[in-house]
Amino acid sequence: MGPTSGSDDTQQGDHVQNQMVIERNGHMNDSRSAQMSESAEQKMIRASGVVKEYRTGTSTLQALKGVDFSVTKGEMVAVMGPSGCGKTTLLNCLSGLDDVTEGQVWLEGVDLATLSDKQRTESRARRMGFIFQVYNLLPVLSAIENVELPLLVSGVKSREARDRSREALRTVGLEQWATHRPAELSGGQRQRVTIARALVNNPAIVWGDEPTGALDSTNATEILTLMRELNRTQGLTLVLVTHDPGVGAGCDRIVRMRDGEIVGEERPSGEFGLDGLGVTHGTEDSVQMPSRTAQLTRELYGQG
Ligand SMILES: Nc1ncnc2c1ncn2[C@@H]1O[C@H](COP(=O)(O)OP(=O)(O)OP(=O)(O)O)[C@@H](O)[C@H]1O
Ligand SMILES: [Mg+2]
To answer: Which residues have a beta carbon within 5 Å of ligand 2, which is an ion?
Structure first.
């Protein structure tokens, strides 16, 4: 990856973000899980025949053309494909951030269509972490306050939220930057704050859209290694969109997309191979105005 870590704050730090949440080792209640078959229970996410259409004016664009996809609990999956092929759209639809036009999505065996908006928001807050390009850090909050946000939204007491957030920042090597605001951090540091926020609530699944795109190869390898460790030790499920073959190489499975469809998959057996690879981050949505950032963050957390 390229020389990106500290210099170009404006673009890089705004590039990610997200959130989270978790309930440690949260499980569905017994009656619900008892209704599910064994195989359904092992699926973190399952999508069947998912079509997503965007209507703009009189024209309709089919961004997903009948996608079947599933992720087993504890899997670390990379989604790869050319710009515009539907990767972000897929993540938005699978995580319940956006509605599907046709088809069904089950999260831990529960059909998302059967949940109200409020229930979906709660599910995101309690079970998911997001490291997305569009969900940036709130500029008026310090690093630790940004990390705390999802915990507070989930009802965690402020003292505990502060302790857990400090620990999460320590995990990404930023404890000493806790009181700094995003503008005072480098792009790579901001991305790590975002990652701390995505992990602080101990989520069951983390969705990443170019999660390490703004990091240099050393930091990217560190963060991916950390995610891999959480995956192995805590069963964290990860779905990571990436343009970087070196990221895909360290995942359990690479799913290839093209033109709104899944066109193949591979099972790489290697390690993350990030050295010497070009940085391929920076899409049209990577730079956000603060007001838009605040709006998107509220959207994610279901506030405001
Ligand atoms: N909100 C929207 N309204 C209309 N069209 C959209 C919207 N979001 C995405 N699209 C279109 O849907 C298609 C898929 O977009 P998507 O953002 O999912 O691509 P992507 O694979 O994530 O690309 P990239 O790698 O550049 O981030 C593109 O043609 C895009 O222009
Ligand atoms: Mg995208």
So the answer is: 88
